[in-house]
Amino acid sequence: MAGKDKTVVRTLEDLTLDSGYGGAADSVRSSSVSLCCSDTHQSVSHGGNYWHLTESMHSRHNSLDTVNTVLAEDTEILECAGHCAKLPELEEVPWSLGEVEGALRKDEELMVGNPSPEVLARLSALISRALVRMAREAQRLSLRYAKCTKHEIQSAIKVVLSWTISVNCITAALSALSLYNMSSAGDKFSRGKSARCGLVFSVGRFFRWMVDSRVALRIHEHAAIYLCACMESLFREVFGRVLRSALVERDNGIPKITLESMEQAISNDSEIWGLLQPYQHLICGKNSSGRKT
């Protein structure tokens, strides 16, 4: 029986990715070693086995650009002195500051704030925490069949984000995927996936990040499109809320977004405050009394 289980693992690791990214299929074999079949399998109602992570997720280059997920729930997730464990800080994110500015420019109303490079860098660092949260949730949802599709990404978006923000992000993802599916066969060689989806962020870079972060053994290209479109929409959503807060505070003249005003606006918005905090346990903002939850 044990030999049969080992054969199943080898078969899954030998499967190629469900997308046309060429050499990425080879890289997933080296980055999927942390996913393995449990020694004591538990049967489920409609077939299949439970999958678990034997270790924290590490990238192929042993850097911190990983979602670093430990699925087992135990008391060790709390650090000493009563402090809550923090999310890993990504060394590399699948977007550049130029792409962030380009994504904001898609909505002309957002550019009246004229964000400085420092504001864009801080915004990128904050929203990278949301990326980690969604990747961790997508990874958990992908364990059953060792495959991450658009459905796992969509479910992760609904779990991690508030209802209002998740609707906007899913709408953006559906729009991007529709444009991609409606593109002609000739566009496959003349335009990249991001252009075919109408996105500024690079779909290929998101796909590579998901592979390196070991979100799943197999990653469908639609999952990368969904996550890419969601993050691009989330940047506009968060910055739009910051800008509206600055407009309320300044009745005359064009508001200039600063690091202080951005932090204050985020702190006053319960839908994004908890999302952008570095602590693992936070999934919401503040209650009606202003206390953090």
TrEMBL record:
It is found in: Nucleus. Pfam families: Histone_ABTB (PF26281). One of its GO terms (cellular component) is nucleosome. The nucleosome is a histone octamer containing two molecules each of H2A, H2B, H3 and H4 assembled in one H3-H4 heterotetramer and two H2A-H2B heterodimers. The octamer wraps approximately 147 bp of DNA. Transmembrane segments: none annotated. Residues 94-229 form the ABTB2/3 histone-like domain. Belongs to the histone H2A family. Keywords: ANK repeat, Chromosome, DNA-binding, Nucleosome core, Nucleus, Repeat. InterPro entries: ABTB2/3_histone, Ankyrin-BTB/POZ_domain, Histone-fold, Histone_H2A. It comes from the Eukaryota. The lineage of its organism: Eukaryota, Metazoa, Chordata, Craniata, Vertebrata. The keyword Ribonucleoprotein does not apply. One of its GO terms (molecular function) is DNA binding. This is Histone H2A.
